Each structure stands twice: as structure tokens, then as C-alpha cells.
């Protein structure tokens, strides 16, 4: 176009998927950027939220009527980490089990080889092993701390031999 001498300075420099008019209409009818995104029919992911939010701001569209983000309701007590659970209650994260074991007096060393919190001059994070292989059985006597190397050699590591009877 430059070679042909065509003036294109009045063209937008960005491809516009959602017109200014459409955004103004949706912002006026919405209570949040999330609602605008929903009305546009696009995915509720961070990149879209950021892009649409910035576009609304760049166009100077009034958002003073948007309501503040609701604070999420705090979950109830998670209950004790150690103790028997039902599979329907879900998995307790290993970090939480590890903290509970340490708080109950279990030494921070591998139950198999005895290595402590440092290996080759670097910190070592011990993993929680379920002796019987049932991830929902969080009784203290069924749990032990192991270094990653020893843990990987167990019969029940990462669900290994889960279906095999004991």
C-alpha cells in the first residue's frame, strides 16, 4: 500500500474481534469483567480476562457500576490429617501428611536408609509412603517418611501394584 501511495493511517492497527459498541453494550449490562467474558461466549481463562479488562480500560468504558469481587467463603475445618478416611473424602496432600507426621514426633529421616534432611550438601524433601498402598489409610502406623530414592523402590510407589492382592 505504501508503494501505491494509499493512505491507510485511518485504519486500526489492531485486529478487533469485539467491537467497541458491543463491549460498551455488554459492560453496561454486566456487573463484572467475568460476566462480560461470559456474555461474549469466550473461555473464562486469565488471558481472556486480562485482554478484555485491558481493552475495556483502553476504550475508557465506565465500569464504576461493577461490583467488587466476592470474597470466597472459607472452607470448614479440614479435619485431622492423620487417621482413617474413606476414599470418597479425597486424598490428603502429601505435604500436609508430612507436616502432621513431623508434628507427631516422627524423625525427619528416611525410614529405609536413614538419610536426613540433607543429601550431597542440598536440602532433601522426604516423601510420605503408605505402607499398605491404600492412599486413604492415613493412620500414623501406616505412614512413613522416605527419601525419594527409597520411596521409588517400594512395591506401592505411585500406585504401583495397586490391583495386586497382598
UniProtKB/TrEMBL annotation:
Q: Which keywords appear in this protein's UniProt record, sorted alphabetically?
A: Endonuclease, Hydrolase, Nuclease
Pfam family name, one: HNH_3
Q: Which InterPro entries does this one have?
A: HNH_nuc
Q: Which GO terms describe its molecular function?
A: endonuclease activity
Q: Which residues form the HNH nuclease domain?
A: 125-146
Record's protein name: HNH endonuclease
Amino acid at each position: 500500500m505504501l508503494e501505491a501511495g494509499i493512505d491507510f493511517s485511518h485504519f486500526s492497527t489492531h485486529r478487533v474481534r469485539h467491537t467497541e459498541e458491543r463491549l460498551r453494550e455488554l459492560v453496561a449490562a454486566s456487573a463484572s469483567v467475568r460476566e462480560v467474558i461470559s456474555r461474549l461466549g469466550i473461555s473464562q481463562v486469565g488471558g481472556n480476562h486480562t485482554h478484555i479488562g485491558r481493552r475495556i480500560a483502553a476504550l475508557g468504558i465506565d465500569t464504576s457500576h461493577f461490583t467488587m469481587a466476592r470474597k470466597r467463603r472459607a472452607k470448614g475445618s479440614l479435619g485431622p490429617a492423620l487417621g482413617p478416611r474413606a476414599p470418597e473424602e479425597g486424598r490428603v496432600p502429601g505435604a500436609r501428611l508430612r507436616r502432621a507426621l513431623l508434628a507427631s514426633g516422627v524423625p525427619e529421616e528416611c525410614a529405609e536408609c536413614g538419610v536426613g534432611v540433607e543429601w550431597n550438601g542440598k536440602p532433601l524433601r522426604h516423601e510420605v509412603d503408605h505402607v499398605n498402598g491404600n492412599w486413604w489409610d492415613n493412620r500414623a502406623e501406616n505412614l512413613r517418611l522416605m527419601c525419594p530414592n527409597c520411596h521409588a523402590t517400594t512395591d506401592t510407589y505411585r500406585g504401583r501394584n495397586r490391583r495386586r492382592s497382598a
